[in-house]
Amino acid sequence: MEYRKPSEDAVRYWRTVRLITFFTVGAISLAVCLLMNLDVGATWKYVVLTLIVVINLYNLTALILFPKIEYMQWGYLVEEDRVVIRHGLFWVDKDIIPVIRIQNITVSQGPVMKQYGLFQIEMALASGKFTIEGLKQDVADEIGENLKNRLYSRLAAREDEK
């Protein structure tokens, strides 16, 4: 099984999303620090400031290291009867989605993805949603059409059996 990778622009997209998170959490942290000048106990100030430092260090690490590691882990495979998605950061999960169980296929693009020309495919099942992200438009459209055609052909074959 040879897994296909998302576009390399996905790393830049993930970094941008994490950068937005970093600045948002940083702004909230600054507001909390400014509010800490109110009359609260010294112990609570140290606890809150330590927590703020730890959270911001984690977000900085997530911004620098995690996208590259995530890209190395990410992979997807579209087979005749199933879609396999391998993803994760510390623990790698492998989702196996039977094509016959797919109820809806959506190809979409968010505002940050648009900056990098990336799309995602979301497959809705009765049990939940599964996403392949970081795809160029031609690849996303090809996978979406391919899955739709496989689903229709499997449904037609099922009807012929009845």
CATH class of the largest domain: Mainly Beta
CATH architecture of the largest domain: Roll
CATH topology of the largest domain: PH-domain like
Q: Based on DSSP secondary structure assignment, what is the total number of beta strands?
A: 6
Strand fraction equals: 15-25%
If strands are numbered along the chain, what order do they take across the biggest sheet? 1-2-3
- The Rg value, from CA coordinates, equals 21 Å
CATH superfamily grouping of the largest domain: Pleckstrin-homology domain (PH domain)/Phosphotyrosine-binding domain (PTB)
Structural class: alpha+beta
Major β-sheet, in short? 3 strands, antiparallel
What fraction, in percent, of the residue positions are helical?
Answer: 40-55%
N-to-C order of helices and strands: HHHEEEEHEEH
Quaternary state of the chains: single chain
The DSSP helix count reads 5
Low-confidence stretches: none
- Give the end-to-end Cα distance, rounded to a whole number of Å: 33 Å
The pLDDT mean sits at: 89
Q: Count up the domains.
A: 2
Can you tell me the overall shape? Answer: elongated
